[in-house]
Structures are given as C-alpha cells and as structure tokens.
Amino acid sequence: MKIESITLREIHMPLLYPFVTSFGKEIERHILLVTVRCEGVTGWGECVASEHPYYSEECVATAAAVMRQELIPALLGHTLERASDCVPLFARVRGNRMAKGALENALWEAEACAKKVPLWKLLGGTRSEIACGVSIGLQESLDRLEEKVAVELAAGYQRIKLKCKPGMDVALFERIRNRWPNILLSCDANSAYTLADAEHLKTFDRFDLLMIEQPLWHDDIYNHSKLQKQIKTRICLDEAIRNARDAEAAIELGACGIVNVKVGRVGGFTEAVKVHDVAQKHGIPVWCGGMLESGIGRAQNVHLSSLPDFTLPGDVSASKRYWAEDIIEPEVTVSGKGTIAVPDVPGTGYRVNEDLIERLTIKKETF
C-alpha cells in the first residue's frame, strides 16, 4: 500500500445527552478524523482524544499538531506491506498514542479493504457477535440514575457500569443493587480516589461488583497492587495501561484482575492486540472500553472485541445511545439480547456517510 494522501478533519457532533464523569461534563464531541488513501483504497481512523487533556495528556489540538508536524510526514510516500509497518515509522515520536492510533487504525481498515477481508480476520478475531454493556455517567439524582439503568436493561445490555467519585458512590450502588440484585454491575472511578480511601473502597465489596475501574492515580500500577490486596472486588486498570509492558507489569504485581483495552489509549491495533495477548497468557479477561466514539471508532471497536480474550461485555453500545445521527451507515445496533453482530464483509462492514461528515466539518487539511 503506497500512502498517497492523508486528510485530517475536525468535526463537531452534539451528544444526545450530557455525559458526566469525575472529569466533568461533555455535551458535544470535537472529533478528529483521519482519511488515508493508498492506491485506490481509503481507510478511515478516529482520534479518541477529547477537546481537553483531562483523560490523558493528549487533546484534539495536540493530536492534530503532532500528526501534521511529525506522523504524517513520516508516513506519506511510503509503501507498506501491512498496516503494522507504520509502527517503526512513528517510533521516534514519544507518547501521542491517540494520534498514532488514529493513523494506524485507518491503515488497518485500508489493508482489510485492499485484501478484501473483514477487519476482524486481520486482527485475529474469532467471534461472530460480541457482548455489550453500557457506561452510565453521573446523574442529577438517584431517581434519574435508576430510570437510565432501567432503560438500558430493557434494551438488553448485559452489563451496567456506573461512573462514581467520592460522595457519589455507595448510595448509587445501593439504589441499583436493591432494585436489581442479580445484574452484572461495575463502577468506574476515573482515578477519583487515593490509597487513603482504602477503607471506604472496601465497602464496595458488599455490592458484588464485577470490578472497580481505575480507582487510583491514572499513571499508577504499584499502589493499585497495594489496594487490590485489601479489597475483594477486582480492580480493572484503564488509564494506567499504555502498552503491553504495562499490562505485563500490572498483572505480575497483582494490581488488577481485569484489563480495559482502549485501542486509542494504547496507540493503535498493533499494541491493542499485544495487550490482549499478554492478558490472555495470564488468564486475565479483557474488555473493550469506549471513548464516546463516532461510528468510525465504534465500528473498529466491534472488530477488536471479536478477539478471544474479550470475554466480558464491553462499552461498545449502539449509535443511538449517543447520536441523533451517526456518521456511518448502517448505524451500530444492539440486539435485544445485548449483542452486536461482527460484519463478515471486507473492511469494517460500515459505510462512511461523507455527505454528513462534510456538513459537520469545521476544519479540513489534506497532505
């Protein structure tokens, strides 16, 4: 695949409902999309960085700058046998994994289209359908939270994840567990606690949670290992796992019993598969986390989730949970039993709605 041109564009997509976490509230997404064209084939990628550098050091502006100044010049004009060949071309640039991942994933889609195979087959997937859960942001009241959970369970979702933070945790779990004692329930702290909160976090054990996701510092493994020894609920690491080496260290230190794999957070499909393989080797289940992606990133998450160790329901939910109109056709839909079928056609199996993207675009550059 000879890389002939690359287009960056920023689009604005309003969320159907505000999404509130310990980081703050999002009411719309500023999304950086990448289009890679190589010898008649086009691949699309999505940078999952947010408008602000709160979840990670990256944001839309920094990702665009790094792509423009470093990554795109390193890629243009090269002929690659496979998408993963871009990894050494990007290696001199430290960090900036979300920027790298957007470009790399576009190349994986292009490779799948060029070879006329489904993306999941290139990645090593084995499933024809994936199990789905939902992430529910902090709500203005417990009644509203209960209403939201009821809606998602009625839609068939197999796992409910509640965002939490100090002062908004135990009461949430009590309300939901009292009404639904047997559902698969987990929580996500987004680094809102410290090790000084260990005694409080021990109280979460009585709610039979599947996991508590990233309770401590975003870049910490060691203190999570100390916390895991004090609580029964399995810790799931998210932000702290940046690559397969982090996963290996966290598992060997006993810092987690579950790993969240976000393809953008680890820098693209190549590293995501490596993280998956490390966890599988150690018997640690993984699941695919979400970053409020548009349909482009969401479709690629569907294919990643088909790998064999993705045994827990991920945050890969239906387009209609977030968008009045998604930018792919057909939109991602979830069955009544809480699953998504993995398309068995070349590429991702979803068509990009370029007319809608043009209407949503506020900035565009082609190299």
General description of the model:
The structure is a single chain. This protein has helices at 60-75, 86-90, 97-115, 119-123, 142-154, 170-179, 198-202, 222-228, 244-252, 263-266, 269-281, 295-304, 354-360; strands at residues 5-21, 24-38, 41-47, 129-131, 133-136, 159-163, 185-188, 212-213, 235-237, 258-261, 286-288, 328-329, 339-341, 351-352, 361-366. With 367 residues, it is α/β, with parallel strands linked by helices. A 7-stranded parallel beta sheet has the order 5-6-7-8-9-10-11. Helix 9 (244-252) links the parallel strand 9 and strand 10 (258-261). It is globular. The two termini are 17 Å apart.
Write the layout of secondary structure elements.
Blueprint: E1 5-21, E2 24-38, E3 41-47, H1 60-75, H2 86-90, H3 97-115, H4 119-123, E4 129-131, E5 133-136, H5 142-154, E6 159-163, H6 170-179, E7 185-188, H7 198-202, E8 212-213, H8 222-228, E9 235-237, H9 244-252, E10 258-261, H10 263-266, H11 269-281, E11 286-288, H12 295-304, E12 328-329, E13 339-341, E14 351-352, H13 354-360, E15 361-366
Helix pairs in contact: 1-3, 5-6, 9-11
